[in-house]
Amino acid sequence: MNIIVTNTALQEFCDKISDVDYITIDTEFLREKTYWSKLCLIQIASDEDEAIIDPLARDIDLAPLIDILFDENIIKVFHAARQDLEIFFNITGKIPTPIFDTQVAAMVAGFGESVGYERLVRDIVNVQIDKSSRFTDWSKRPLSNKQLVYALADVTHLRDVYKHLKEILDKNGRSHWLSQEMKILESVETYDLRPTDVWRRIKLRNLKRQHLGAIMKLAEWRENEARDKNIPRNRIIKDDSIIEIAIQQPQNISVLDSFRAIPKGFARSEKAKKMFEQYEIGRDIPFDDLPELPNNRNRQKADSGILEMLKVVLRLVCEKENVAAKLIANASDLEKIAISDDADVPALNGWRDEIFGKIALDIKNGRSALKVVDGVVSVFKI
After folding, report:
1. pTM for this predicted structure
2. Which of 260, 277, 295 is a domain's end point?
3. N or C: which end of the chain has fewer CB within 10 A?
């Protein structure tokens, strides 16, 4: 097994794979106690070579590997790529391209929704992966041979999975479907979440718009603190605490100790002083300068009959095309389509529109209808 711990070995391996058509990649990392993922292993395989790179090895320089990752002539194959790509983005500020995500490809190819790597390997390669090393602390050294074998299997079997899925997509003419999906994963905006926008990740149920300024500034402050200290957001302050402060609107910092979601004694800390300053800034944002609450954007209720018909159409299309429903539209998307023909949803764009969106709008607007023949539901033009 090729375990790379020196710059010389890394350069030699990267030279070997510099002219291949594709490589499979996986990473092992830790994030439970940090804001930024701690990269612990990088597994790489091509048709002829495979290796485990130890980024924790003393003085190792990943520059030769970075060159490979950004070589436009080499397809980078991942399974469920988002977290791996986020790690490389945080290291380099760029996204490796081009990429092929086998989890997304499997949904396009009819393997179901969010299918796991182990199942794909079992179904395609006919190999059962030993998952006993899944919860390894990958930062500890030395790693056992069993752990290293498990890690390497994440890229060696991925070669056959990739080839099988690519063949399916080429045969059924859906390669361009996958290319459209990869554009999202290859976009910097997918990973570069600005602290000023982090508030959008907080569940804002039963809140009034006047509370939003405080939530925005508190979430921004928390994000910056978590990044600077490299600890998880909730170790700074929890979402429930942010919401309670915004709703209660305390007039002075000492009141914080009486809040249910705030730890006792927090109000006397230096962290609380900085937080309260940001809260006051947010609290004083003029109402007209606040954005609309996300849950206020489509207050119009979708007609239940239209919504049910759209659900039937989605199921019919997915069965006919053998593609996962999750990849086409979710419940929120269907509700928006039921409300507006111009809904800003993926289902009304690109390949989704071709196989589902146009049909859905025809059904909604009476240009097509559902019929039952011999107990089978189908769509027909009126």
Report:
1. 0.88
2. 295
3. C
